[in-house]
Amino acid sequence: MKAGVVVFPGSNCDRDAAVTLQAVTGHPAEMIWHGDTDMPDCDLIVVPGGFSYGDYLRSGAMAAHSPICRTIVEKAKRGVPVLGICNGFQILTETGLLPGILMRNASLRFICKDVYIRPERTDTIFAAAYEAGKAIRIPIAHKDGNYFADRETLDRLDGDGLVAFRYCTEQGEVSDAANPNGSQRNIAGLYSENGRILGMMPHPERLADAMLGGVDGRPLFQSLVNSIH
Amino acid sequence: MKARVTVTLKTGVLDPQGKAIAHALGSLGIDGVDGVRQGKYIEVELAETDPERAKATLERICKELLANPVIENYRYELEGA
Question: Residue A108 and residue B66: Cβ atoms within 8 Å?
Answer without folding.
Answer: no
